[in-house]
Design goal:
Blueprint: E1 9-22, E2 25-38, E3 42-46, H1 53-60, E4 69-78, E5 81-82, H2 88-94, E6 99-102, H3 106-109, H4 116-125, H5 132-145, H6 151-154, H7 164-176, E7 182-186, H8 194-211, E8 214-219, H9 222-228, E9 231-236, E10 239-245, H10 246-251, H11 256-263, H12 304-308, E11 314-315, E12 321-322
Parallel strand pairs: 3-8, 3-9, 6-7, 7-8
Antiparallel strand pairs: 1-2, 1-4, 4-5, 9-10, 10-12, 11-12
The chain binds iron/sulfur cluster.
The site of iron/sulfur cluster (SF4) has 13 residues, from loops.
């Protein structure tokens, strides 16, 4: 990749629409989303399961098989170059080199038949010409960097000899070994207990600071978002409903869905008698997405206009924007 082409935004996704062809018709999993990621910053993508977070992440690295996946529209500009126009071979050069991914489940993401050191080296060897000794030294360095104790011994062990938290550290070592410019972490701490989760998040933050890596963090855990993210995108039914800085989203949420997500987070000072909030209903069927606001069926504040008219994105302060008729001053607010 031509480093002279570096721009402030390492990634720009423009009007991306991704569908899945199925026996029953087309599922519109991601519907015309646009966002950007500043170099060296962390962007969190949040939302319920099935909202399009992981499809968005996998589209960036082109891990989804075509077919059934159809890229209907849009651009994914990485350092100014459109990844959707790259050939398979060009993407192989980019994946694991300039862009790496950490997956949710380290149990199934590591190869159980290979020593972890070899797995770390194998990824790097695909992109860089290094000797066996250099590779082993690098694997030990990476295990040390992710705080795996006794890395000289552990480098020769198999994944089943590691605990879940240690396996996730190995996954991060594997992803970071080639010093990628962009790390995509898809629910990296979901399978871990809270103590190990905190250690892994600390680790990612340190690696980001040391290596200047930009991070996209996919999660449904708003505690993790508050801890890690600079900017946040809230997705629902394949669309972005709100985006802004972490302060905008947590202190001044403008979309009813964001407010509901925040109210569903358990609080330490909750009275025992208080019940946890949940969001009633289910997301719409993406075989036939609604013409109007996709949150209409579950929204307590819905108005007549919301059913059939998709709200435009409205810009608030800075880069904070949301897609809800309530924020449009000039719309006719008749409660449904
Ligand atoms: Fe609720 Fe209407 Fe806003 Fe959608 S546009 S979130 S239905 S108020």
């Amino acid at each position: 990749m031509d480093l002279n082409k570096q721009v402030d935004n390492i990634l720009e996704v423009k009007n991306l629409a991704v569908s899945f062809e199925t026996f029953f018709g087309e599922v519109e999993a991601v519907r015309n989303i646009s966002f950007s990621l500043k170099r060296g910053s962390t962007l969190a993508i949040v939302g319920e399961s099935g909202c399009g977070k992981s499809v968005t992440a996998n589209s960036i690295v082109q891990l989804l098989p075509k077919p059934p996946v159809l890229y209907k529209n849009g651009e994914i500009l990485f350092n100014g170059e459109d990844l959707l126009k790259k050939s398979n071979n060009e993407m192989v050069d980019i994946r694991g080199n300039s862009i790496s991914m950490v997956f949710q489940d380290p149990m199934t993401s590591l190869n159980p038949t290979m020593k972890v050191g070899n797995q770390i080296v194998e990824g790097v060897k695909r992109h860089k010409n290094i000797s066996r000794e250099e590779g082993k030294k690098l694997a030990i360095e990476m295990l040390d960097l992710v705080a795996v104790p006794q890395p000289e011994r552990r480098v020769n062990q198999y994944p089943h000899e590691f605990s879940g938290g240690m396996r996730q550290r190995v996954m991060i070592a594997l992803a970071m070994a080639a010093k990628p410019e962009l790390l995509i972490a898809d629910e990296p701490t979901t399978a871990l207990d809270v103590t190990v989760q905190a250690q892994i998040l600390d680790l990612m933050r340190n690696l980001k600071d040391e290596m200047g890596t930009s991070i996209i963090l996919i999660t449904h855990d708003l505690g993790v978002v508050a801890d890690m993210a600079d900017e946040v995108i809230v997705m629902y039914a394949g669309q972005i409903l709100e985006k802004g800085t972490v302060i905008d989203i947590f202190k001044n949420p403008k979309h009813p869905y964001t407010r509901k997500l925040l109210s569903a987070v358990p609080k330490l000072n909750m009275a025992r008698s208080e019940t946890l909030h949940s969001i009633d209903g289910t997301p719409p069927d993406l075989y036939k997405p609604p013409a109007g606001c996709s949150f209409y069926d579950r929204c307590d504040e819905a108005m007549v206009i919301c059913k059939d008219h998709l709200p435009e994105f409205l810009h608030h302060e800075g880069e904070h924007c949301s897609r809800c008729w309530l924020n449009h001053k000039d719309c006719v607010k008749v409660v449904r």
